[in-house]
Amino acid sequence: MLFNSFEFIIFFFIVFFIYYKSYNNLKFQNTLLLVSSYVFYGWWDWKFLSLIIISSVSDYIIGRAIDENNNQEKRKQLLILSLFINLGILGFFKYYNFFTESFTDFVSLFGFETNPFLLNIVLPVGISFYTFQTMSYTIDIYRNKMRANKNLLEFMTFVSFFPQLVAGPIERASHLLPQFSKKRKFDVNEFKEGAKQSFWGLFKKIVIADNCAFYANQIFENSDSYPGSVLAIGVILFAFQIYGDFSGYSDIAIGISRMMGIDLMQNFKSPYLAENIQDFWRRWHISLSTWFRDYVYIPLGGSQVDSSFRRSLNIIITFTVSGFWHGANWTFIIWGALHSLFYFIQTGYSKNMKSVKILPENFVKVFNILITFIAVSFAWIFFRAESFSHAINYISEILSNTLFVNPITYFKGMGSSIQPFIIIVSLIYLSVFEISNRNASYSFQVGHYKAPYRTLIYCSLLLLLIFFRATNGSIDFIYFQF
Length: 482
Fold this sequence. Notes:
Family: Belongs to the membrane-bound acyltransferase family.
Membrane topology: Multi-pass membrane protein
Subcellular location: Cell membrane
Shape: globular
Transmembrane segments: 5-23, 43-66, 78-97, 117-139, 324-345, 366-383, 417-435, 456-480
Protein name: Membrane-bound O-acyltransferase family protein
């Protein structure tokens, strides 16, 4: 069930009405959320519900066992069991074919031939998200950062809470889980703010992401047919497609949750206004970047180790593993590793620029934002490409003399004449809100505008949303495949 579908609108308002009708009965509210979440997830394939139930029940039992055990060795064994179950399920469905094919390719270099057994299965939607969410729960109990929850209903609702189940934010149990033990009453102000944030998320998905996708998909899928100038534009369009798509999902999820009295963490904060790669990852997919910081980077020693080589290695490992989390393909691993390379380059650049006082501060800031956006967009090529060779060929064409070919004639035959105009207008809207609300909880803040301007903004965005939802239909979110 997609957020941008009519089925979801009907589903949500039925759940919402019953949910607040039962505000005095906490157990019923949580039961409703759990059943609704399973219906929401089972809409794709009900068979994969068993995986969520296994993760939920196993971590509930193991979490309590860790919490109630004082023997450190036994606690460690229980934690390893939890990690084995969660990573085992994730590895089987997401990475089995990748490792099998990679091993086959490796041994073939030495003249050995194998006949590998590959799985012909569909990747369960959202498995990477809820797996990391339950893993952090048992790890935090093991670290004595929180106590185990003794209410199975509350815990299973925490794992499967439908707004953020499929593509995050990846919530920490210490933040989200306690909210299911408190009664939630209707709050008109929270409802309004949640509705506005959901509306903005739908706009970013339907108007910005889906229209950019129309061109980006054609360009990447037929890259051999276009000059470097068109391919370069395709990269920029994909950069805004994936941002509008993923941050749009997060805005909808956070907004829906606010309407239901549940607070989710902020997941995006104007990432394309970041001044360096480190700043970018403080603003992009915040729930994942902080997860890798707390459960991979810091346990490796973080920046506290004495050796500069070890610190650099910790950064490379964290970025590379983050890339591998996104998909079972070498392109994702390279994408993650590239970000570690950019991190080192920009760190060295920043140290040198501190001694340069000639240039105006605002000029340096804008220049840093531009360079960071170019670096991030370059890495997106590997993220979007079907294979390593596809990415290399794509980059080679951009760096050729065809970069200076007029791209307009190539776009004329792709789609309607109004689409490029709408994309430009939409990106202007996005830029205005992102710049003016760079550090806000979400970028669509219009309360400071006078009433006529607010009305004009709402109406224009709504008309664009309705028109392109009717034109393009319901298109899957990119991160569903992760």
